[in-house]
Structures are given as structure tokens and as C-alpha cells.
Amino acid sequence: MATGTEPSSHTGATGVHTASRAAIPARHLRTDRWWLAPACTAAGLLAFIVYSTWRAFANADYYHAPYVSPFYSPCLAENCHTMRGGPNWEIFGSWWGLSPALLILIFPLGFRLTCYYYRKAYYRGFWASPPACAVAEPHKKYTGETRFPLILQNIHRYFFYFAVLVAGVLTYDTALTFRDEHYAWGHMGLGTLIFLVNIVLIWAYTVSCHSCRHIVGGRLKHFSKHPVRYRLWGWIGKLNERHMLLAWSSLVSVAVADFYVFLLASGAFPDPRFF
Amino acid sequence: MSVSQEEQRSGVYQAHFRVWRGDEHAGDLADFTVEVHEGEVVLDIVHRLQATQAPDLAVRWNCKAGKCGSCSAEINGRPRLMCMTRMSVFDRTETITITPMRAFPVVRDLVTDVSFNYAKAREIPAFVPPAELAPGEYRMQQEDVGRSQEFRKCIECFLCQDTCHVVRDHEENKAAFAGPRFLMRIAELDMHPLDAAPDSGIDRKATAQDEHGLGYCNITKCCTEVCPEHIKITDNALIPLKERAADRKYDPLVWLGNKIRRRGE
């Protein structure tokens, strides 16, 4: 039979140690490696944050004809490298003196920061809220996404709209990679292949977004009255099931595409041409 | 033949269990060694424990088929149905810990007071029948009800409510937060093609956020992870409901579109 555990030790406690609940001193009783997934998530996101911060502030080695790094496209300031036929749109003119990547990265960053998958990832990985299922979180108070700043997560759909525009520009950049270094069309190199894989993954991640699923058809009450939108909703739903996979693979592919341009631009090796 | 070889051959072995015993005043984990037969589930072992060593052990169960949602507990710290947890998933030498659900007040041993959930269920406005149709005249297309049929698989085991950190780790949030099971219920009704709630002045999208605490959910998906019916609670109910609430409360474009459309009607 059970030995006594005095409830007085739980007085004033909250969460799983609330007085009326089963008196179990441990914060959790999980025996599996529950910490592995949040640790890997945090490590992966941290690695990307370090890499992208370095590249975004570097303001160098982001263009090697015909490739432009996805971190610097479209280039919205005058201090951009001139890219023949490329995305040079000097909306911000000459007053912008910092890296032009900072102007555009805010949009994909906002899209990923408010993404329903990444929210889960960083709430678990960085904020331990919760670190894993049925593992007590360390915070005394929790208000979720009811207050500023986290209530701003509700504007995810606006970042989705911008993400579609950015993906459109990156598609244009990918089309430009079918040129050679002298801007002649009808060529293809290893970079073209990397850009193609990247843009497919970027579009798949963008389209599989929960907000996209909602906008396309999820908000409807009567699918039967909107057969086309219902069909589209079904397709996006299938992609949406792989949203986490697409989030990670597109994150890696965009970093690989940027790093490849960095290697070419810094003269590490010439782009292997297929034809 | 050694004991372990004999155990391998017969499929019968002795397993070590720690079962929480106590009530709302006090309690502790008690150690037991129980015989396990091939093909058994954790609930079988708890029944054997009652029959052989602890006749006063309290446990709530009913169908033993994963359909009544009664035998919810935490096994090695994970919220699960005892009747659907096969002993074969554990190593034979492993100590298996069984405790009551830790988000709810304990009654005795493995039995908890889940009345929080019934109180929350009563707070959700029921289906509002359309005024122009009598019972028996409801006609719906399959594609219109397909989405919400997934949510009807819920057996109300309350494992999602138990694992949700919003209330599990913060007792004070219980008043404001309905929990994943009942937010899913709101989503189900809001997606129902014949629900006439808006005509009777009930805005399920807005009240999900304002009255049932949808904003507390930070979509970390534990409810989905523990659901024994494999309902995609987060992706198919909670996130769509968040998007619907955003339509109503945080999206000026949708608001403007609705105004223009109504003016044109």
C-alpha cells in the first residue's frame, strides 16, 4: 500500500504539483529520450540563425553570374551588385547603407517566424513551453498567444502573401540560371540544379502553409458549392501533412543555394557546366 | 532450461510495475511484480494486480477495446489508454510506471475527477438547427461533412486535455481555457454545413477566441500526439479555428470584404 506523502508540501504549488492532483514529486515520469527532438530542433534552428545572420550582414559574395543568392533577391537598394537582367529594383535608393539582404529577409523571416510549424518548433526547442508532451514546463505563468507580442502570430497570412511574392522572384532568378556567365541562354550548370531543387521546395513549403490552406478553401462552410476550391483544398491538405518536412528541407535548400553562390563568388571553384 | 529461456518459450514472464496509490490527501508509487502473458495489454496487468495482490486498487475501465475512453492514465509518463497499450512495446526487464492523469484532481489510485471536462462541454453552445428545416429534412453533401466527421471519432478519453500544458502546467488557466477537445468541438460545429448559430447571434469564431481561450493554444501538438483515435486535432481543428478567428478578429481585409459583400446583397 502507498506510503504517505504529505499534501502540505504541495501547498501553493501549481501545475502537476497542484494540491488536488496525484502527489508525485517528479516533474515528469517519461523514460524515453524526450529531450532529443527539442534539442535537435534548437540546434538546427540555431545553426541556421548563425549562418543566415553572417550571410545577411556580410554584404559580399552574393552574386556570380548568372546566380544570385536567395538571401539577396530581390535587391531593393542602390548599393546592390548589378545583376544583368536580374532582380535589381532600387526601391530604397541610395540612402540605405547597410546590407540589402536585411531589406528583403524580413519577409521570409516573418513568414517562418509566424509559421504554425516553426511556432511549435521554437516554443518547444527554445522556450520549453512545453519542452515535450507531459513534461512540465519551467514557467510560472502562461498566457499563450493571447497578448502582445505573441498575439501578432495571427498576422501569419499577411506574411504568406509576401512569401508568395518572394517565391515568385526566386522563380524568376531560377529561370535566369539557365544562362551562362556571359548571359547567353540555353545553358545549365550545377547551380541551376541547386536553384531548381530550392525553388521547388520553397514553393512546396509556401503552398503547404496552413494559412494558404485556409484561404484556398478552409474558410468555406459548403465545399459542395465550390468544387474547384474544394479540390485545391484537398491537394494543399496533402502537402500540408508534410509541412514540417518541407519547412526543414526548404530551410536547408535555401542555405545550400546561398552557400553555393558564396563559394562561386569567392572563387572557391568554377561552376561545373552541364551544357 | 533457464528461467529466462522458459519465459521466452512460454511467453509468460514476471514484470516489475510501479503503480500510484493514494487519494487527494496523500499517495505514492507502490512496487509490484506481476505475471504477464503474451498478447496482454497494461489494463490486463492492472486487473491481474487487483485479482492477486491489490483488491482495493481503484481503476476506471469499461470496454477494453479503445472505444469508451475510460481507462486513461499515464504509462511511463505518457498519457495513454491502458487497454490500448500492449505490453510487448516494453522491454521485459523494464519497470513500468502507471499513474493517474496528472492534469485532473485525483479521486483514488488511478481514478481522476474529470468533471472539468463536463463543465467545459456545457459552455459550448450546441448545434443550432436551421429554422427552415424540420428534423428528418436535413440533407448534406458528403464533402460538406467530411471534415467534421474526423472530429466525431473522439471517444472523450480526455488524454488531449490531460497532456495540454495550458492547463496541465497552469491550474489557473482552467477557468479561461476549454482545452483541445472542446475547441475541436467548436471547430466541428463551425464547419457544420447546417449549423445556424450565426442566425441566432452566436459567432463561434469570435467566441472561440474571446470565451473559450483559443489564444492560449500555442499549437505544440501534444493533443495530436496522444490522441488514441489519431485525430489530427491541431492541424485539422485548432489551426483552422485559429485562422477562422483571425478572419473575424485580426484581418481587416476579410472584414472589409464581408462588409462590401453584405452591402451588395
UniProtKB/TrEMBL annotation, chain A:
In Swiss-Prot or TrEMBL terms, this protein is called Succinate dehydrogenase
Q: Which domain of life is it from?
A: Bacteria
Q: Which UniProt keywords apply?
A: Membrane, Transmembrane, Transmembrane helix
Organism of provenance: Streptomyces sioyaensis
Question: What residue intervals traverse the membrane?
Answer: 34-54, 95-118, 158-178, 184-205, 245-269
UniProtKB/TrEMBL annotation, chain B:
Indicate what this protein is called per its UniProt record: Succinate dehydrogenase/fumarate reductase iron-sulfur subunit
BP GO terms, sorted: respiratory electron transport chain; tricarboxylic acid cycle
Q: What keywords is this UniProt entry annotated with?
A: 2Fe-2S, 4Fe-4S, Iron, Iron-sulfur, Metal-binding, Oxidoreductase
Which cellular components does GO assign to this protein? Answer: plasma membrane
Concerning Pfam families, the annotation shows:
Fer2_3, Fer4_8
What SUPFAM superfamilies does the record point to? 2Fe-2S ferredoxin-like (SSF54292), alpha-helical ferredoxin (SSF46548)
Q: In which pathway does it act?
A: Carbohydrate metabolism; tricarboxylic acid cycle
InterPro entries according to UniProt = 2Fe-2S_ferredoxin-like_sf, 2Fe-2S_ferredoxin-type, 2Fe2S_fd_BS, 4Fe4S_Fe-S-bd, Beta-grasp_dom_sf, Helical_ferredxn, SDH/FRD_Iron-Sulfur, Succ_DH/fum_Rdtase_Fe-S
Question: What positions does the domain 2Fe-2S ferredoxin-type occupy?
Answer: 15-102
Molecular function in Gene Ontology = 2 iron, 2 sulfur cluster binding; 4 iron, 4 sulfur cluster binding; electron transfer activity; metal ion binding; oxidoreductase activity
What's this protein's family per the entry?
A: Belongs to the succinate dehydrogenase/fumarate reductase iron-sulfur protein family.
Natural source organism: Streptomyces sioyaensis
Q: What transmembrane ranges does the database entry give?
A: none
Database matches in PROSITE patterns:
2FE2S_FER_1, 2FE2S_FER_2
Top-level taxon: Bacteria
The taxonomic lineage of its organism, from the top, reads: Bacteria, Bacillati, Actinomycetota, Actinomycetes, Kitasatosporales
What are the required cofactors? [2Fe-2S] cluster; [3Fe-4S] cluster; [4Fe-4S] cluster
